[in-house]
Structure formats: C-alpha cells, structure tokens
Amino acid sequence: MLVVMKHNASEEQISGVVSTIREMGYDARPIPGGQRTAIGLIGNDGRVDSGRLEGLEGVLEVIPVTHAYKQVSREWKDEDTRVRLPNGTVVGGPDVVVMAGPCAVEGEHQIVDIAHRLREMGATVLRGGAFKPRTSPYSFQGLGEEGLRFLARARDETGMMIVTEALDPDGADLVAEYADIIQIGARNMQNYPLLRRAGRTGKPVLLKRGMAATIEEFLLAAEYLLAEGNENVILCERGVASFAKHTRNLLDLAAIPVVKGLSHLPIIADPSHGTGLRAKVIPMARAAIAAGADGLIIEVHEDPPRAMSDGAQSLYPTQFAEMMAEIGVIARAIGRDVTAPLSVPAPA
Ligand code: PEP
Ligand code: MN
Description:
Elements lengths: L1 E4 L5 H13 L3 E6 L4 E6 L8 H4 L4 E5 L19 E2 L5 E2 L3 E7 L6 H13 L4 E3 L17 H14 L2 E5 L3 H10 L2 E4 L7 H10 L3 E4 L6 H13 L5 E5 L17 H8 L4 E3 L1 H5 L2 H13 L4 E5 L17 H17 L3 E2 L10
Parallel strand pairs: 7-8, 7-14, 7-15, 8-9, 9-10, 10-11, 11-12, 12-13
Antiparallel strand pairs: 1-3, 1-4, 2-3, 5-6
Bound molecules: phosphoenolpyruvate and manganese (II) ion.
C-alpha cells in the first residue's frame, strides 16, 4: 500500500503518517519524488485497513499495491531506477551499458589483458567469475579469492567496474569486498539466504533470471534485495529452459518490455548464456537493445577454443568490436546511445 501525500504536505504531516503506520504494526518507507512524497507500507501479508491513513492530514490518497512484489513494482515507484557505479556508468538511464569479459577468471594476465582490450572497445564493466557454479562437480570451479584479486587489479588498471558472482551468503560478503556489482546466478535466483545477505552488503546486485522462473518469481526474488533496503538492483534476462535444443537456452526477449512495464528496475540481457552459440550472440545482442534492454552482459575470450568454461559462446575480441558498432546504430535508432568509453585512469 502506498500513501500519497499532497504536494505541499509538511515534514510533520509526513512523519505523522510514518508513525501511524508503525503504530499499526507495519513498517514505513518514505519515497521522496519530484512532485510529491509517497510513503510505502511494508510488512503486511494481506489486506490493510486504510481508513485510518486516509483521514490523516496531508494525505492525498491511499493506493493499494496489487502485486506481491511491492517495492520492485511500478505502482510503488513510477520513475526508472538508475544504478550509478563509481566510474560514472549508469545502468537504467538513457545510455545502454555493456558489461563484458570471460566466463571465468583464469589467470592474472588473462583478465588484465582482456580488460584493457574491452575498455578500448567501449565496455565499461568487466565480468569474470571467480566462483563458478558448474553443472558438473568435476568442471573448473574458479580461482576463488585469488580471482577476485585479479579482477581488482584489472579495475585499478582500466577503471572498469567489476561484476562477479557470489555462490553463497559468506561468499557475498567476500565478493562485496572486491566487486562493484555482486552477480547472483540463474541457479541461485531463489536462494533466499544469499539474496538477503547480498542485499545487506549495500553493493549493487545483478540478479539473473532462473532457468525456469516466471516473471513473477523473478521480481519476487528482486523484492528480497529491496526488502533489505538495497534498491541498486539490475535484472538480467539470460534465457530459460525450453523443449527446443537449437540454442542452449531460450532467450526470452519479450521479458524485457514485460519487466519494464511491471517494474522500475533496469534490465539487461545476456545473449551469451541465452544462446550458448558464438554465432548467435551478436544477432540476439542487437535484438535485445531493440527490445529496450538497458544493457548487455557478453562473454568474450582472447582464445575461446581454449577457454576453461563457456568457450563455445564466447566472442572473439574482433567480434565484440563489430557488436559494439552495430548496437550503437540500434541504440541511436530508438533514441538512446551506448555509454561513452572510459578514458585510461592515471596509474595509482
Ligand atoms: C555466468 O554468468 O557465467 C553464469 C554462470 O550465468 P548464469 O547464472 O546465467 O548461468
Ligand atoms: Mn558463463
């Protein structure tokens, strides 16, 4: 439920509403806006009697929030959320953001060298898993904390922001010490203790859609992060399981405009995991931007046939350059642009 205040409501009237909500046994979240302040009521699992709130001074109207995911919904907040990163990259603004890098951090030179090339080609966020959720327990599991240190080195040298996956709650705290964005993978979308801990770190979170998750389940998973007071959430469509086997997953591009209608959170697309096939990544990257995605996350490897994971879907750097040129054209056709490339940071 949202209590919308009149545009000239005083601070006193706003705190009067907040304390009444608390007296009723719920929690209150004031949401200041350009035109007016609204106060969100949380902590209820069903209908709330709004009569007492409607009568308070300064209240314009009381609006029920119909979705189970509240703080994530557009009913709660109409304005698009912009996730601002320390290097100036904004996810959810007019410009589309490109995150790129190998599936996994394999070594210091591998990640630092590719980071330099990707920055030159216009990526502003570097991806790379240090903790890898592999389908087989015998596959490469990642370099762990050493991989995080290599990522931090790549950030120091290039100014790119780091997005990397956390697999469990303690891992979220560790990843938060090094990364700029904590990635929650598809396999963990409904790992609620992990979501809560990642939400509490205060770091932006990239939440990937589970391989069999409905949009409602996806947005409710994001609600766990916002419920911890963390609004810096970036959603990611990465394809769902399907009966068809022509691609690794079925990249659900319709999810992009659907999520944009239901939620104020930014959403990016992952055509690498969404197709599993290098030759299909660029067409689906173009399509995702055309569908309104706020960005892309793309796997790129210097030598994909030798990659320790997901080589078949990793672009060669030259292909990544082609993709950047093409998505620029598409972004401009729909009144957007691609985030400007970073300048080289001064050596520390
Ligand atoms: C990844 O980004 O490398 C990854 C494991 O993705 P997902 O969780 O979407 O499978
Ligand atoms: Mn991967």
